[in-house]
């Protein structure tokens, strides 16, 4: 189906010259003078080659029909990252370049949105937030106010995050998967 270029978002799949590309980043530019444009960074699904295209924001682009649904992450090995469809129990393997930076947050049993085309995974979307455990951080200093400063901490999944001073080792916290920022203390 045809869509206007300005409506493209990360994870969309477009068809160009008979080949499929997954959108990695899409930005709209509105200069003071001239025509507004959309710049799109894409990866060709067949061979992983990255490319950048620029269209007028009102130009029509062919968007491919992709199956997007919730899958369960099972495990990763030398073959790739294994996911299972919870309804049909079908399993697919996603390669390292498809999972990319999402790999640090993947834990067995985690539910993710996986986009597939002809039964092959092409893009992954993590839940917006995930719960991690703090494994190392500086000790609490008396008199520090909670609102003014944050301290660095390391999580059990290997992600560095800035946390409020009252958070100590062993505390479970909720972090935003998009930018690895602290959201709140976990309620479990």
UniProtKB/TrEMBL annotation:
<dbReference type="GO" id="GO:0043043">
    <property type="term" value="P:peptide biosynthetic process"/>
</dbReference>
<dbReference type="InterPro" id="IPR014722">
    <property type="entry name" value="Rib_uL2_dom2"/>
</dbReference>
<keyword id="KW-0251">Elongation factor</keyword>
<dbReference type="Pfam" id="PF09285">
    <property type="entry name" value="Elong-fact-P_C"/>
</dbReference>
<comment type="function">
    <text>Involved in peptide bond synthesis. Stimulates efficient translation and peptide-bond synthesis on native or reconstituted 70S ribosomes in vitro. Probably functions indirectly by altering the affinity of the ribosome for aminoacyl-tRNA, thus increasing their reactivity as acceptors for peptidyl transferase.</text>
</comment>
<feature type="domain" description="Translation elongation factor P/YeiP central">
    <location>
        <begin position="68"/>
        <end position="122"/>
    </location>
</feature>
<dbReference type="InterPro" id="IPR015365">
    <property type="entry name" value="Elong-fact-P_C"/>
</dbReference>
<keyword id="KW-0963">Cytoplasm</keyword>
<dbReference type="GO" id="GO:0005829">
    <property type="term" value="C:cytosol"/>
</dbReference>
<dbReference type="Pfam" id="PF08207">
    <property type="entry name" value="EFP_N"/>
</dbReference>
<dbReference type="InterPro" id="IPR001059">
    <property type="entry name" value="Transl_elong_P/YeiP_cen"/>
</dbReference>
<dbReference type="InterPro" id="IPR013852">
    <property type="entry name" value="Transl_elong_P/YeiP_CS"/>
</dbReference>
<feature type="domain" description="Elongation factor P C-terminal">
    <location>
        <begin position="130"/>
        <end position="185"/>
    </location>
</feature>
<dbReference type="GO" id="GO:0003746">
    <property type="term" value="F:translation elongation factor activity"/>
</dbReference>
<dbReference type="InterPro" id="IPR020599">
    <property type="entry name" value="Transl_elong_fac_P/YeiP"/>
</dbReference>
<dbReference type="InterPro" id="IPR008991">
    <property type="entry name" value="Translation_prot_SH3-like_sf"/>
</dbReference>
<dbReference type="InterPro" id="IPR012340">
    <property type="entry name" value="NA-bd_OB-fold"/>
</dbReference>
<dbReference type="Pfam" id="PF01132">
    <property type="entry name" value="EFP"/>
</dbReference>
<protein>
    <recommendedName>
        <fullName>Elongation factor P</fullName>
    </recommendedName>
</protein>
<dbReference type="InterPro" id="IPR011768">
    <property type="entry name" value="Transl_elongation_fac_P"/>
</dbReference>
<keyword id="KW-0648">Protein biosynthesis</keyword>
<comment type="pathway">
    <text>Protein biosynthesis; polypeptide chain elongation.</text>
</comment>
<dbReference type="InterPro" id="IPR013185">
    <property type="entry name" value="Transl_elong_KOW-like"/>
</dbReference>
<comment type="similarity">
    <text>Belongs to the elongation factor P family.</text>
</comment>
């Amino acid at each position: 189906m045809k869509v206007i270029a300005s409506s493209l978002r990360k994870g969309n799949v477009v068809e160009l010259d008979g080949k499929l590309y997954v959108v990695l980043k899409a930005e709209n530019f509105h200069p003071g003078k001239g025509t507004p444009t959309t710049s799109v960074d894409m990866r060709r699904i067949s061979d992983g080659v990255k490319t950048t295209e620029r269209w007028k924001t009102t130009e029509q682009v062919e968007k491919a029909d992709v199956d997007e649904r919730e899958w369960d992450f099972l495990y990763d090995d030398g073959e790739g990252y294994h996911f299972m469809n919870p309804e049909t129990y079908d399993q697919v393997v996603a390669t390292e370049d498809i999972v990319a930076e999402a790999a640090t947050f993947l834990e067995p049993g985690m539910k993710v949105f996986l986009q597939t085309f002809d039964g092959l995974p092409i893009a992954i979307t993590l839940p917006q937030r995930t719960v991690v455990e703090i494994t190392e951080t500086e000790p609490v200093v008396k008199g520090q106010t909670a609102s003014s400063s944050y301290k660095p901490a390391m999580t059990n999944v290997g992600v560095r995050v800035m946390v409020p001073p009252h958070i100590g080792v062993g505390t479970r916290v909720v972090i935003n998967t998009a930018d690895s920022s602290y959201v709140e203390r976990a309620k479990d």
